[in-house]
Amino acid sequence: MEKRVYNFSAGPAVLPVPAIEEAQRHLLALPGVGSSILEISHRSKTFTHIIEQAEANLRELLAIPSNYHVLFLQGGAQMQFAMAPMNLLHGSGQPADYVLTGSWGKKAMSEAKTQGATRIAFDGAAANYNRVPKQEELDLDPAAAYVHITSNETIGGVQFPSEPDTGNVPIVCDASSDFLSRPVQMERYGILYACAQKNAGPAGVTMVIIRDDLCQRSPSTLPSMLSYKLHAENKSLLNTAPTFPIYMVGLVTSWLLEEVGGLARMHQINRDKAQILYDCIDGSEGFYAVHAEPDSRSIMNVAFRLKDASLEEPFLKEAEKHDLTALKGHRSVGGCRASIYNAMPVEGVKTLSRFMDDFRAKNA
Questions:
Q1: Rounded mean pLDDT of the chain?
Q2: For 47, how many CA atoms within 13 A lie in the half-sphere containing its CB?
Q3: What is 6-16+261-363's CATH topology?
Q4: Could you check whether the bond before residue 219 is cis, i.e. omega within 30 degrees of 0?
Q5: How confident is the model over 184-221, as pLDDT tens digits?
Q6: Where are the domains of the chain?
Q7: pLDDT (0 to 100) of residue 1
Q8: Fold of 17-260
Q9: Helix axis angle, 76-88 to 103-112, nearest 10°
Q10: 3-state SS string over the chain?
């Protein structure tokens, strides 16, 4: 069997080994079916059970109320950057508020501008997107169609510790990189969407959890594939669904329920893992430095730099020799980044911390 490294990629990212092993065992033929998940019809009884089980798992994990739809769509989070304003802004006569805490929030707003009026409720550019706003810093329009936030910015490692108060205005949230990492108050959201390839499965499917009254806003003039309402009415089977990614979402969410014990337990594990790295960095006497302010630090993506930038390339090369891979920061900002999603084992984080201490001792 090929040795597995500790994969700190921001996405597609590490998956739970039990989920991969189950997919491996049944890849040639699903039990009692005689065909692979890669071969069966998306309209077969077998796949109907698979997608219904994936939805049931998500509903249990996130305590999703009955007046919310769970959709399995394609196009990634970037498709949702456009779909949300397409469905909620057209004909509303209202602007949408955008809270900008990093690159993905900016991209979401850029797409929304093509569909309707937008406002900036907060922009962290002046501080190089190193924190989330305090409640009193939000310039919110009480008549806005929605408030868009990015709950966790992968590039800068900045995360909302909790949902902002937006009054009666629904929150539309890109939760791609902290989806299923912690419990959420689902009632606070109008739409919560996430691509799978961070915490929920492989690339190819995007989960959209949408309140029914917002689903009904979809204009009839939209192309079918861009209408939340039509996707909901067709139970995510308006076209050929991404069958294998949805199957994997089912396996990953079953792992969260049965082996981890739910999102409260997963959240504690994630906080413990993040603390190991932040303690290592904070105790390095300036050799390493975190990008995000302490009260905005992500428990999913630890973005950091070495004080001596010339050491970053040797650091990354040496890390790979120790089976610690994909630690290079995003191409737009450089530096280093350890993505420690749900499936990253605690031992992987401890191994990275020990390596960082050793590297500092040799190079300080």
A1: 96
A2: 20
A3: Aspartate Aminotransferase, domain 1 (3.90.1150)
A4: no
A5: 999 999 999 999 999 999 999 999 999 999 999 999 99
A6: 6-16+261-363, 17-260
A7: 66
A8: Aspartate Aminotransferase; domain 2 (3.40.640)
A9: 40
A10: CCCCCEECCCCCCCCCHHHHHHHHHCCCCCCCCCCCCCCCCCCCHHHHHHHHHHHHHHHHHHCCCCCEEEEEECCHHHHHHHHHHHHHCCCCCCCEEEEECCHHHHHHHHHHCCCCCEEEEEEHHHHCCCCCCCHHHCCCCCCCCCEEEECEECCCCEECCCCCCCCCCCEEEECCCCCCCCCCCHHHEEEEEEECCCCCCCCCCEEEEEEHHHHCCCCCCCCHHHCHHHHHHCCCCCCCCCHHHHHHHHHHHHHHHHHHCCHHHHHHHHHHHHHHHHHHHHCCCCCEEECCCHHHECCCEEEEEECCHHHHHHHHHHHHHCCEECCECCCCCCCEEEECCCCCCHHHHHHHHHHHHHHHHHHC
242 Cβ contact list (under 8 Å, min separation 6): 72, 74, 204, 205
Contacts of 243 (CB under 8 A, 6+ apart): 37, 38, 40, 42, 47, 50
> Under a CB-based contact definition with an 8 Å cutoff, are residues 48 and 72 in contact?
no
Residues marked as catalytic: 104, 174, 198
Q: Which value, in Å, is the radius of gyration of the alpha carbons in the chain?
A: 21
